[in-house]
Amino acid sequence: MAYETSNPIKKIAEAGGNSVFFYTDGDAIATIAASGYFNSATENLKENDIILCVGSNASTQTVDICVVSSATGAATVTVVNGS
Q1: From 37's CA, which of 14, 49, 52, 67 has a CA 20 to 30 Å away?
Q2: Domain span holding position 44
Q3: What are the φ/ψ torsions at residue 82 (nearest 5 degrees)?
Q4: Could you give the C-alpha distances from 14 to 19, 41, 58, in angstroms and in order?
Q5: pLDDT by residue (tens digit) across 50-75?
Q6: For the whole model, what pTM was predicted?
């Protein structure tokens, strides 16, 4: 499943030109960290922003940190799983 704007990322902090976001979904971190998952959020994300992700591994919730490695205009958003 892909990111949907009906379940948006939420900005929780901003400092030094970068932001920290919170995101929760039932997808596995491998899906969340896949290139293009956050394409619908390009207007909110920029390189080096951090996304705290709560996902799922079967029935177990997981927590991971992703760093936005690319987010330019309407192009593909790419994140790196920092866990």
Answers
A1: 14
A2: 10-81
A3: -95, 10
A4: 4, 16, 32
A5: 999 999 988 899 999 999 888 766 55
A6: 0.86
